[in-house]
Sequence to fold (1246 residues):
Amino acid sequence: MDEIMSRKRTSFFTIFWGILALLYFFLPIYGTLDFSLRMERGILGFKAYKIIFADPRFWEGFRYSVTMAVITIIVSAAIFVPTIYWMYLKVPQARPIMEIITILPFVIPGIILVFGLIRTFSRPPLQLTTSTFKTDILMIAGYVIISMPYMFRAVDVGMRSIDVRTLTEAAQSLGSNWFHVLADVIIPNLRLAILGGSLICFATVMGELILADFLVRPALGPYMVRLGLTKAYEPAALAIISYSLTWFSLGLLQFFSSRSERQKQQVITT
Amino acid sequence: MDEIMSRKRTSFFTIFWGILALLYFFLPIYGTLDFSLRMERGILGFKAYKIIFADPRFWEGFRYSVTMAVITIIVSAAIFVPTIYWMYLKVPQARPIMEIITILPFVIPGIILVFGLIRTFSRPPLQLTTSTFKTDILMIAGYVIISMPYMFRAVDVGMRSIDVRTLTEAAQSLGSNWFHVLADVIIPNLRLAILGGSLICFATVMGELILADFLVRPALGPYMVRLGLTKAYEPAALAIISYSLTWFSLGLLQFFSSRSERQKQQVITT
Amino acid sequence: MTHLELTHIHKSFGASVAVEDFNLTVKQGEFVSFLGPSGCGKTTTLRMVAGFELPTSGNVTLNGKDLTYVPPNKRNVGMVFQSYALFPNMTVAQNVGYGLKIAGKSKNEIEERVREMLSLIQMDKFYSRYPYQLSGGQQQRVALARALAIQPELLLLDEPLSALDAKIRFELRQEIRRIQQKLGITTIYVTHDQEEALSLSDRIVVMSQGKIEQVGNPFEIYNFPQTRFVAKFVGSLNTVTATVVDPAKGIASFDGINLEIAQGLNGKNKGEEVTIAIRPERFNFLAEQRKENVFDCTIENITFLGSVVRVQMKIGNSIFNMDTFNRPSLKLPNIGGKEQVTCSNKAVLVLAG
Amino acid sequence: MTHLELTHIHKSFGASVAVEDFNLTVKQGEFVSFLGPSGCGKTTTLRMVAGFELPTSGNVTLNGKDLTYVPPNKRNVGMVFQSYALFPNMTVAQNVGYGLKIAGKSKNEIEERVREMLSLIQMDKFYSRYPYQLSGGQQQRVALARALAIQPELLLLDEPLSALDAKIRFELRQEIRRIQQKLGITTIYVTHDQEEALSLSDRIVVMSQGKIEQVGNPFEIYNFPQTRFVAKFVGSLNTVTATVVDPAKGIASFDGINLEIAQGLNGKNKGEEVTIAIRPERFNFLAEQRKENVFDCTIENITFLGSVVRVQMKIGNSIFNMDTFNRPSLKLPNIGGKEQVTCSNKAVLVLAG
Fold:
C-alpha cells in the first residue's frame, strides 16, 4: 500500500513538473502561433507567412545566415576536433585552461565581445572592415568565438565517452599513422558529438543579432528585429518559422542520438 | 634524442595554440583598453571612466541589473537544485527530456524567445506588462529561461560527480529525512557547481540586451548599446569595466575550484 | 532468540521477478552472508531489509516489530556500501558522528562515541582528515564505524570489499569479522565472492535467480552442496554423467569405469543417469594398496596456481582436474604419462537437479 | 634463438624513476610474464617494448634489429589492452581486419585472414556484431584476434584479464595459453595477479619499484623465492625473526624453539638474526613419530577459504597460519586446543634482504 502511494507521489511530481515546463515553454509559443495566424481579422490564415516568404530581404538574410552558419561549423570543427584530440592525448593538464577559455563567450557579455572585435579590426594595422569579403571573415571569426563553448563542450563530451588514448595506441600498434587514427577511429566515434555541436552552432548563428547589426551585414537576426519594430504579425510568423526549423534540427539530433545512445551506454558498461 | 624532439614538438604545438588563443582573445581586449584610455588627445587617462562613473544612468542600470541577476540566481537555484536532485534519485530516465528542454534557450534564438514572451504576457489573460513590478516578474522569468542551460548544466555536472543515490541512502540509513539529506549532504557537495552556474548566470543577466530593451527596463545592456551608438570612448571604457568584473568573478571561481578540484578527483579515483 | 525474520518476501520490478518466496530467520548476533552471482537478488533482498526497496509481498520483522513499511531513516539499521559513500564534505569525525547528530545527541556524547568508534577501527589519528585523504580501505573502515556509531540493531554490508585490492580485501575481511564478534551485532553480508562468504559467515544463504538454493554453515555449503548450482558456484568441481549400476551398494559407472559412492544411490534405479561430482582436491596419486575408486589416467596438463598445482588428467574419455599442494619435493608426472589416481568414496557427490 | 632483448633499460618521468637497469632476454616462442604490484614499472616496460614510451636510456632489440626509436606503428608488435580498446564504430570483422587494411592487403586476403582468426578464437558467428553487442570476455577475445591478425613478431598483453569476472578470467586465461602455444608466438604478459603469472608463464619476471627482483619459472618463483619481496608477493607466507644457533647444522631458534633448515645457514654467524619463512601449506598436524621441526601450538582460529581451511596457531609467542585441504572427513581441532604440528626442514626458507 505504502509503495503504491510512493509510486503515485513520484508520478504526481513528474507530471506536475512536466506540466509546469510545458506551460512555461509552450504557452508563449502557442500565443505567438495563434497571433501569427490572425493577420486577417476574424479568420485564421497564413497571410503573415505569405508576406514573409514573398519578401526578398527575408530570403537574402536566410541565405546569408545559412552560409555563414555552415562556414562557421566547418571552421569550428576543423579547429576544435584536432585541438581537443591533441589535448586529450598529449596535454591533458591543459584541460582547465581550455575550459576557461571556451567558457569566456558565455561569461563576457556578447555586446562587449562585439565592441572589442569591431574596435580592434576596424582600424589599422588589422583593418578588416574595408570590404564585405573581409567583413565576412570578421563575422566568421566572431561566430566561431560565440559558438565555441557549444562546439568545445560537444566534442569534449564525445571525446570523454571514448578512451581516446587507448584507442589511439591500439590503432598505432596495428600500423596506423596519425591521419588514419583520426580518420578511421576518432572522428567516426565523434560523429554524433560533432553533429550535436554543429546544430547548436547553426541555431546560434541563425539567431545572432549584434555582430551582424554592428557590421551591417544582411543576416537574419537584424532582419527579424527590424521587422519586430515595424510590424505586428509578421515577426510572430517569423518566430514560428524559426521555431519549426529549430525543432526539426533537434528532432534530427534526437533521432540520431537515441539510435546510438544504447550503443554508447553498452560500450561503457561492459 | 628522439624523445627530446617529441617533447619539443609537443611544447611547440602547445605554445603555438596558446599564443593563437591569446591573440584571438586579447588583441580585441587590448585594442579596447588602449582606445578607452585615449579620450584626451595625446595622453593616456581615465577620463572616459570618470564620465561613466559620474553618469547616474550607469549606476541605475548597474543596480537594476545586479538586483535582477541576484534574484534570477536565487530563483534558478531554488528551482533546479531540488528538481535535478529528484531527477537523479527517482526518474533518471527523464534526463534526456530535461537535457532537451534546458538546451532550448541555446537553440531558439534569443529574439524569438523574447518575442514569444512579450506577445503572450502583454495581452489578457496573463497581462504582466501593466506595472513595472509585474514587468520585472516577467523579466525574471525570461532571465531564468535564458540562464537555464548554464544553471542546469552546472548543477548536473556537480550531481554527476557525487554518487547522489548512495549518499542519500547512506544518510537515510543514519536517520536523515529528505530535508537533512539535501541540506547536510547534497547541497554542501554542490556548492562549487552552484557557484559556477551562478557566476555564468550573473554574467548573462548583466549583459542581456533584448529582453530589457523590449520591456523598456533600465538594465545595463540597453544602456551600453545606447552609449555605443552615440559615444566613442565611453563604450570602450564600459567594456573594460565589464571585462574586469567578469575576470574577477572567473578568478573567484577558479580559486574555489582549484582548491577543491584535487579533493573531487581523489574521491573519484580512490 | 530470533532477531530478524524475513517471511515470504517477494519482489518484482514490472514483469521481472527479482526475489521469490524468500524465508529466513536470523539469530541475535549471527553473521549471515547472501552469496550468489550478480542479478541473483541478494542485493535487492538486503535493500528490502534496509528499507530502500519495498517488497511486493511478504514481511520483514526485526525484534518482533514489523518493519516492512517503515521508512529507512526510522529503522535503526547500519548500512555499509560497496562505494564507501562517505560524505565528501565532512571529516572522518563528522562522518562517524553524523547519525548521532541527526539523532540529536549532545556534543560531548557525539565526541566520546566518535573517539570510541575510531579507536575500534584503529584510526584515531585520522579524526580530522577528509575522505579524499584516505585510501579505499581506510574509507571503508570509516564507513563501517559510521554505520556502527548509531548502535544499530542490525548491520548490513553490501559487497563492502569488492572495490578494494586483494591484499586489503583480505585484511579488512578479518577486521570486519573481529569487530562483528566483539560487538556481537547481527550482520547480513552480501557478496559474490565465495571465499569471503566461507571465511566470514556463521551461515551462508546461496542464491540464484531470486531463489534460495541452500542455507547452511560454510562447512556444509562447501562439502555437502545440495544443488548443482551450489556445487558449481562454490569451489571448483569435476562433474561427469554416470549410469547407476547398483543402487544398493552405491555403484555407478562412466566410460565403463565403476565408481563407489559412500552416500549411496538410494531412490535411483539401475540404468538411470546421475550427475556425479568430485572436487579436484579430493583426488590423490595412488600411494598404498587400495581397491575402491582407483583409476588409470593419462596426464594432460599441469598448471601452477600458486600454493596449489592443478593436474589435468583423462580418466576413460572424461577430463578431470586434481589439485595438490605445491611443494618443492613434489614429484610431478610427465605430461602424456600414465598414472593411477584415487579418491575416497566419501568424496563422490551425487548432485540433485 | 634470442628473439627480444632489453638491455640496460632505464626510464624516468621527471625526477621519479619508473624503471631501473632492466635487462632481459626472451627466446623465440617464450611466454614471459611481468609480475608486480601497481607502480612497479611493469606496464612502463611493456609500453617501451610497444613503442608508446621511449626509454631514457637503454635499448630494445627484436630479432637483432634495434627498435628503441622506431615509432609504434612500424614495429609489427601486437598489443592487447586491459580495456579491450575495440573500435566502437567497427564490426568484429572490421576490427580484426583493420591492421591488414592499413597494411594495404587485398579484400580477399583480409576476408580469409579474418575468418581464420575468428575461428581460432571460436567466434565465427560474431563476424558482423558490433563491440557493444559483446560481453567483456568476448570483446577481449576479439582484441586478441585483432592483435594476432597482423601476424606480429611479438604479442604484448597489458593486464588483459583484470576487467573481467573471476569465472571468465579463468576461462580466457586457458584460451590465451592455448592460442599462444598453437601459434608459438613470443609473448609478454603484464599482470599483478600471481595466479595468472604462475599458471600461464614459461618464465616470470617479478618486479618491485622499477627493479627486477627475480626471474625464473613458476616453480622456482614459488618454491625458491630469492628475496623477501618475492616471497611475500607470491603466495602467502609466515615469517618470523630467528637467531642463528648452529650455522653448520642449519639450526636457528625463535621464542626458544629450535628450527632445522635443510638449505643451511652458510655464511651466517651464531647469534645473528635471520628472517625465516614457511608457507602455510607446508605445515601438517603430527601424524607419525618425528624428531625435527615438531612444534607445540595452541589453535587460535579456523577459517574456511573454500577448498582450503586455514588454521591460525600460536607457536611460542608467534602466530603462524597452516593450510590444509577442506574435506568432510577432516577432524579440525578445537579453538584454544593444544596440538602438535610439523613441517619438513626443506620447507623452511631463509630470506635475503
